[in-house]
Amino acid sequence: MNNSNHLVNSDNVGYASYLFEQEKNKRYLPGEGPYVAAFASSNLGDVSPNILGPRCINTGESCDNANSTCPIGGPSMCIAMGPGQDMLDSTQIIGRKIYEKAKELYASASQEVTGPLASAHQWVNMTDVTVWLNSTHTAKTCKPALGYSFAAGTIDGFGTLNFMQGTTVGDPFWDSIRDQALGKPSEEIKECQKPKPILLHTGELSKPHPWHPDIVDVQIITLGFLAITAIPGEFTTMSGRRLREAVQEEFATYGMLNMNVVISGLCNVYTHYITTYEEYQAQRYEAASTIYGPHTLSAYIQLFRVLAKAIATDTVANLSSGPEPPFFKDLMTPLIPNTVDRAPVGTTFGDVLQPANPQYRVGEVVEVTFVGANPKNSAENRTHQTFLTVEKYEATSATWKIMHNDASWETRFYWHKGLLGHSNATIQWHIPDTAQPGTYRIRYFGHNRKQDFLKPAVILSFESTPSTFDVVTTW
């Protein structure tokens, strides 16, 4: 799912989780069953599911080059594609492949994880770690900064201002805009981050809050022969290999042999990407987003070795907890103010503006449009657990059975914002091949913000049940 997707939904790994849970939670709606299938992120920093690779969308030729750019149109024309007809189709194809392999591994698993549970955790000032490169030479991490290629984005989602990946020299135009808007980066941070040309010196910006964290978590949890390293960011493939090997080696040095080291990415606090030193020199997107400088990976390897040794030697209690991170009580105020919802004259919230057709076939799309209200109201006041339901009439019991909710892959919920508090909500049901013939209805659940003169705003719930429609297998 690239950055043109405006729906809130899972990506391919989430779809794999969805399929596995649907398999295990028969007769439950998505998200409501007792079985949880967690498909966690590992060292995914430079991994893409868009397996057809990057191509210039205007000419069709490959743009798999160091700058991910096209001869005509530049970087914005260079986009990687998945195996499907569109990104939703690609997400399902890749997600199903992940699910099927996971199901195979699940069915054939034979080694039970047993043994003692241990953990080690430290806070570390990642802007000031001395890294031992060898027995005689050291280097240091840097205050955080983002490079030019960060603004370029990637072939999975390009930036908007025609920045290019692989940029190792700054641009006077953008440097001057940065200097006037945010102040100049110090010589210290520019020298430390080389060869990264600094676009945003986030480690030297602190209003209204620090732009990037200085204090970062490092953590290992072990259960028997399994060691989970909790990584505060996105390691590249090679960064992950090096960390796993180093941690496994450290465990072995102190008597814990054959440890299975797993990387759990994006844990505790987010610090963008972590590339190898060699990848950092090329300054593609991930390297430009390695915020603590070229020796970030070496610093993490050093820090995680300390944790592994502490667990192996049973000296976790002697570890320093490190400098605690700041706790921010005053969070930033929303940039978009809450506005009162209004229904057109002669209507009320939930009224049907475009009804469903009387009849549909399997494979078609049911679409109903309602007088809507800001869905943010519902997120803050969860009277209902879903924005929508698709329900089937059961003649034997004379009741309506919920078949799908807003977490179902077959449904879509669109909110169309108008002027002066007016809005519409459109619900779609993409009728699956598995749908049984019968009578159905779509229901809409929402909340509207109301405010009378000189009175505080109140949130009111509403729901709508439009007319029914039939689903048939053939005309």
Provide a descriptive summary of the structure in words:
Keywords: Hydrolase, Lipid metabolism, Metal-binding, Sphingolipid metabolism, Zinc. Zn(2+) binds at residues 234, 273. The chain is α+β, with helices and mostly antiparallel strands and 475 residues long. It folds into three domains: 1-110, no CATH class; 113-325, no CATH class; 351-472, Sandwich (Immunoglobulin-like). 23% of the residues lie in helices and 25% in strands. The strands form eight sheets. Strands 16, 18, 19, 22, 23 and 24 form a six-stranded mixed sheet that branches.
Mean pLDDT: 94
What Rg do the Cα atoms give? 26 Å
User: Which structural class fits the helix and strand makeup?
Assistant: alpha+beta
Largest sheet: 6 strands, mixed
Domain count: the total is 3
* Share of β-strand residues: 25-35%
CA(first)-CA(last) distance = 35 Å
GO cellular component, one term: extracellular region
Keywords: Hydrolase, Lipid metabolism, Metal-binding, Sphingolipid metabolism, Zinc
Domain Neutral/alkaline non-lysosomal ceramidase C-terminal: 305-471
Family: Belongs to the neutral ceramidase family.
Write the layout of secondary structure elements.
Blueprint lengths: L11 H13 L28 E4 L21 E4 L5 H22 L8 E9 L4 E3 L5 E3 L5 E2 H5 E2 L2 E2 L13 H11 L4 H7 L4 E3 L14 E9 L2 E5 L3 E2 L1 H17 L6 E5 L8 E2 L2 H6 L2 H4 L7 H17 L39 E3 L4 E3 L3 E7 L4 H5 L7 E7 L4 E7 L5 E7 L5 E8 L7 E13 L7 E7 L4 E4 L3
Parallel strand pairs: 11-13, 12-14, 16-24
Antiparallel strand pairs: 1-2, 3-10, 4-5, 6-9, 7-8, 10-11, 15-17, 17-21, 18-19, 18-22, 20-21, 22-23, 22-24
